[in-house]
Write a structure and sequence with these properties.
Oligomer: single chain
Order of helices and strands: HHHHHEEHEEEHEHEHHHHHH
Number of helices: 14
Number of strands: 7
Pfam families: MULE (PF10551)
Largest sheet: 7 strands, mixed
InterPro entries: MULE_transposase_dom
Strand content: 15-25%
Strand order of the largest sheet: 1-2-5-4-3-6-7
Structural class: alpha/beta
Distance between the termini: 59 Å
Helix content: 40-55%
Protein name: MULE transposase domain-containing protein
Number of domains: 3
Domain MULE transposase: 134-225
Length: 319
């Protein structure tokens, strides 16, 4: 009996020591996630790890890892000062090559907006003379603080897309984009042949100003997303499409208009418009929206993705 009790106590002690080792490693290792640390330690001591569950201790390990990490800078001046510290530059401001190069470039603060540029100098120095560029913005992964958008700039090389630059912006205005691309051009003379973006007006206007010889191509995914969003706001329209398969089929044909050559888009729109008249006034508001937004405002040449090797910017989500 006493031997059994001693064995139970020893097992509990071993589990305690293993858990302690995991917590200590989490405190000193800021690069590996708690899950990675947990798995590595459990692999080295499988006997003691039988009854230890990561889910029950995850928050404890995360708190251990946060110890010693300085608080996130809150203001633009704090962010700029933080990123320019030598210790921070060595930890997160350089690439992971055998010979690290600068990844953090600069933080620019003005009265109306600010932006923070990260870019790979290794890629920049090996770019072809003429290239295709892709630009997309996201709000989901932006750190809490003054920055509101992360702009990702990629380039296509040999059939593959590579991230060229990441830019944190406080505002998504035309003035902010104008200043940003002026800054990028002053540092790196890029000569894009095509630039694929969503249909954000300020961004596209700034690109036209700085890259007048480049062809601006719209993102097919964002085109469909915009149509769906607008259609859902038309009273009763989506309900009507759900109850009439022929109407739904016609509606979805509008998704494919950008697949046509630009000089065929107006013809296709008129044909679909004529077909929509067979449903009475049901399509009237949608037809007016499509005509005003995509035929007149954006224009056929802007929305056409005819013969484009990549019709969307979805691959940027990988970065």
């Amino acid at each position: 009996m006493s031997t059994h009790i001693h064995g139970v106590q020893q097992a509990a002690y071993n589990e305690f020591k293993l858990n302690d080792r995991i917590k200590n490693r989490c405190k000193v290792n800021k690069n590996a996630t708690p899950r990675v640390v947990f798995n590595e330690e459990c692999q080295m001591d499988r006997k003691s790890s039988k009854n230890i569950q990561f889910g029950r201790r995850q928050r404890t390990y995360q708190r251990c890892q946060r110890q010693g990490i300085p608080r996130n800078p809150k203001t633009l001046d704090e962010i700029k000062t933080y990123l320019e510290q030598e210790e921070v530059l060595n930890r997160i401001g350089k690439t992971l090559h055998c010979e690290p190069k600068m990844f953090y470039q600069q933080t620019v603060i003005t009265a109306l907006f600010a932006y923070c540029i990260f870019a790979s100098e290794s890629i920049l120095t090996n770019l072809p003379a003429i290239l295709n560029m892709r630009i997309d913005g996201t709000f989901k992964v932006v750190p809490a603080g003054p920055f509101k958008q992360l702009l990702i700039i990629c380039v296509d090389v040999s059939g593959h897309s590579f991230p060229l630059s990441y830019v944190l912006l406080t505002r998504k205005t035309q003035a902010a984009y104008m200043q940003l691309f002026k800054q990028l051009q002053s540092k790196w003379k890029l000569t894009p042949m095509t630039i694929t973006t969503d249909y954000e007006r300020g961004l596209r206007n700034a690109l036209r100003m700085h890259y007048p010889s480049a062809e601006l191509v719209g993102c097919w995914f964002h085109f469909i997303q915009a149509i769906r969003k607008r259609a859902s706001k038309i009273p009763g329209f989506m309900t009507f499409l759900k109850t009439d398969s022929s109407a739904k089929k016609l509606y979805r044909k509008f998704y494919n208009i950008p697949l046509l050559k630009d000089d065929k888009i107006n013809i296709a729109f008129e044909l679909l418009k004529q077909e929509a008249s067979s449903f009475g006034t049901r399509f009237n508001e949608f037809i007016k929206y499509f005509h005003d937004q995509w035929i007149l405002k954006e224009g056929p040449s802007s929305i056409s993705v005819f013969l484009q090797s990549h019709r969307t910017n979805n691959l940027l989500d990988s970065y």
